[in-house]
Amino acid sequence: MIDFSAFNDALGIMFTSAGSWGWIVPGLVVGLVFSAIPGISITMAMAIVLPMSLYMDFFSAIVFLTSVYTGAGFGGSVPAILMNIPGSPSSFATTFDGYAMSQKGEHNEALGYALFASTLCGIAGYVLLLLVIEPLADIVLRIGPVEMFAVAIWGMMLLGSLGSAYISRGLFAAALGILLGTVGMNTAGFTRGTMGLPVLLDGIAPIPAMIGLLAASQLLSLASRDYIIEAEGSREVSLRKILKGCWGTMKYPGVLLRGSIIGIIIGAVPGVGSSIGNLIAYAETKRTAKDSATFGKGNPKGVIAAESAVASGEGGSMATMLALGIPGGGATAILIAAFMMHNIVPGPSFIETQKPMVYAIILNNIVQAVVLLAVGIGFIYVASNIMKVRTRYVLPAILVIATLGTFAVTGEAAGPITLFVFALLGYALNRYQYPVSAVVVGILLGRMLETEFLRSYQLSGGNPLYILERPGAMAIFAVMFASLAMTAWGKRKQNRAEAAEALAMEKLRDEAAAHAAHTTPSKG
Q1: What is the 3-state secondary structure (H, E, C) of 230-264?
Q2: The dihedral of CA 136, 142, 143, 147: what is its sign?
Q3: Which parts of the sequence belong to the DUF112 domain (predicted)?
Q4: pLDDT surpasses 60 at 163
Q5: How many other CB atoms are there within 10 angstroms of residue 400's CB atom?
Q6: Could you tell me if 42 and 5 are in contact, meaning their C-beta atoms sit under 8 angstroms apart?
C-alpha cells in the first residue's frame, strides 16, 4: 500500500519542481505526432528526443520522456480510425471498429471515444501502480516461460474472433501468419525459411510487414475515391461531436474496467507489449457483449476496449521498469537509459532508497493523462482535417511516409522491401477474402509462441505434468477454457433465439398471407 510519508515528500518534489511541468505539453505533442505516422514507433520517437534529456535535471528529463510515452499511446489510434492504418502495432485492434465508424461519418465520435478511454484508463493504470508497485514486483518475478506460453495461446485464441466468413480461410490465414512469424533462427539454433538471406536470420520485421498487410488493400480501395469519406456532410470536424464521443465513453464502465485490468496485467509482463493487450481486451469484450455481431461494423465498445488496454498497459510497463529495472518493451528500455544517463539505476534498491521520487514520477504520469485530454482534443481537431484533403494528395504522402518509416525501423533497404512484398500479399489475401488480421496476429505471436514453448519444454524436461507446479499458468488456461465454454454456450443460446425468431416471423407471414387470401373479394 501507499507509504504516506513518502507520498507527502513526493508532492513536495512535484511542487518544488514546478518548472518540470512545462515539459508535459511538448512531450505529449511529440508523442502524438510521431506515433500517428505509420512506421514510426514509440521507441523511435523516444530515442530521437533522448539526447535532449541529458541537459535537463533528472525529474524534468523523466517528465519529458514519459510525456512522449503517454502521448504516443494514443496517437497511433488517429490514423487507425481515419484511414484503417494503425500508427503503431498497439493500435491494431482499434482499426476493427474505429474505421467502420469513420466510414459512417462518425470519425469525430470514434476519436472522442478513443481519447477519453486513453485518458481514463491511463489514470486508472497509474493509480493502481501507485497502490501496488511493491507487491507487483514480486508477482512479475514469478512469471516464467510456461505463463508466457499460456499468454501466447490466449492471444492465438483471438483468431476465432478475427476470422472470415469462411472458417477454412481463417484457419489458413492464421497458419500462414504463424509460419511467417517463425522465419529465422529460433532459440534452439535451427534456421527456417530464410532462403539464404542473412537479413531474415532475426525473422521478418513485424512493423514493415504489418504496415504492408494492412495498408495495401486500404490504399488501393481509397485510390478510387476523391475523398477518404465520400459524403461531404460527413467530412466535417466537429468539436461538439468529439466531446460527445468523450462523454459517451462513460456509458461503458464495464468495458473500461475490463480493458484496464487486461492492459495492466499484460503490460507488466516483460516483452509482451500493448499490441497483445489491446487484442485480448477487444476479443474478451466482443465475447461477453450481447451485441457481439455488431463488432467490426462500428461498435464504440470495440474502440474503447482496445484503447483502454493500451493506456493502462503503460502503467503495467512502468511498474516492471521501476520495480525491477526490467524494460517491458522498447519504450521503457529508453527510459532506463535516461535513468542511467543521470547515474540512477531503477529497481528494488531505487524504490527502497528513493520512494518519494518513485511516487513523484507516478503522480506526474497521472497529471500527463489529464493534460492529454486537452492536448489530444486539439490534435484530433487538426488531424481530422485530413478528411477534407483529396486522396490524390493524401495517398502518395502516406506511402512515402510509410516507406521512410519502415526504412528507419530496419536501417536498411529490407524495411521498404518487406513493406512492398507484404503489400502484395495483403492485396491477394483481401482479393480472395482471407482475413489479413489473422495473419497479423500470427506474425506478432508466432515467434513468442515457439520460444516460450521451447523454454517450457527445457525447464520441464518434456514432462507435461510440470504445469501442475505452475499455478499462474493453470489459472490462465482455466480462464481460457471457461471463456471458450461461455462463448460456445452464448452462441448456442443466440442460435436458438434466432431460430425461434425466424420461426415466429414465418408464422406471422403465413397468417398474414392467409388473412389476405380470406379478405380478397372473388371475381365475378
Answers
A1: CCHHHHCCCHHHHHHHHHHHHHCHHHHHHHHHHHH
A2: negative
A3: 23-440
A4: no
A5: 10
A6: no
DSSP character for 22?
A: G
Exposed/middle/buried for residue 408 (C-beta within 10 Å: 0-12, 13-18, 19+):
middle
Structure confidence at residue 274 as a pLDDT band (50, 70, 90): low
Rounded alpha-carbon distances, angstroms, from residue 510 to 480, 503, 504, 513, 522: 45, 11, 10, 5, 20
Q: At what angle do helices 414-431 and 436-460 cross, to 10 degrees?
A: 120
Return the sign of the alpha-carbon dihedral for residues 497, 500, 506, 509: negative
Q: Residue 28's closest CA among 61, 74, 60, 62? A: 74
Q: Which of 214-223, 391-400, 416-425 has the lowest mean pLDDT?
A: 214-223
Q: Which single residue is written with the C-alpha cell 478528411? A: 387
What is the SS3 assignment for 106? coil
pLDDT band at 271 (very low <50, low <70, confident <90, very high): low
Least Cα distance to 208 among 302, 89, 92 occurs for 89
Helices (H) and strands (E) in the chain, counts: 21, 2
- pLDDT single digits (tens) 182-218: 888 877 778 888 888 888 888 888 778 877 887 665 6
Spatial neighbors of 409 by CB under 8 A, at least 6 apart, are 39, 41, 44, 205, 207, 208, 415
- Cell 461461455 -> residue: 486
H/E stretch holding 185 reads strand 184-185
**Is the pLDDT confidence value at 523 over 60?**
no
Mean pLDDT of 419-442: 81
In our burial notation (b when 16+ CB lie closer than 10 A, e otherwise), range 220-234 reads eebeeeebbbeeeeb
Q: Are 446 and 119 in contact (CB under 8 A)?
A: no
- Residue 291 has phi, psi (to 5 degrees) of -105, 40
C-alpha cell at 395: 495517398
d(CA 417, CA 421): 6
Distance CA 405, CA 33 (A): 13
Return the C-alpha cell found at 325.
529495472
- Out of 287-296, 326-335, 489-498, the most confident range is 287-296
Q: What is the CA radius of gyration of the chain?
A: 25
Short-list 224, 210, 287, CA closest to 480: 287
Q: What is the mean pLDDT of residues 346-363?
A: 80
Report the pLDDT averaged over residues 398-426. 81
**Is 383 in a helix, a strand, or coil?**
helix
Q: Are 96 and 53 in contact (CB under 8 A)?
A: no
Helix (H) or strand (E) holding 23: none
120-152 pLDDT tens trace: 888 888 888 777 766 665 666 667 778 777 777
pLDDT at 93 over 80: yes
**461519418: which residue's cell?**
105
Lookup: cell for 476? 490462465
pTM for the full predicted model: 0.72
